[in-house]
Design a protein that fits this description.
The structure is a single chain. By secondary structure, this protein is mainly alpha-helical. The chain has one domain: Orthogonal Bundle (434 Repressor (Amino-terminal Domain)), CATH 1.10.260. Helices cover 51% and strands 9% of the residues. The chain has a two-stranded antiparallel sheet. The longest helix is centred in the C-terminal third of the chain and has 11 residues. The chain is globular.
């Protein structure tokens, strides 16, 4: 399954935050921010820090996408 963090980016825009702000508020690494930006998997700990900081649930910041099978 593929991952999409579009919900996270929309939430940041709605709250007038940038990726750098998210990194500073949560204490997550720049490599984790880069993974999120490329829709790559990150640890549950990273997701929990983001959700705690933004006061939301995991489903509010990410989606699982079905793979296209040919």
């Amino acid at each position: 399954m593929d991952i999409s963090y579009k919900r996270l980016w929309k939430m940041l825009i709605d709250r007038d935050l940038k990726k750098k702000d998210l990194q500073e508020l949560t204490g997550i690494s720049s490599s984790s921010i880069a993974k999120l930006g490329k829709n790559k998997p990150v640890t549950l700990e990273v997701l929990m820090k983001i959700c705690k900081t933004l006061e939301c649930n995991v489903g509010d910041i990410m989606d699982f996408l079905k793979e296209n099978r040919e």
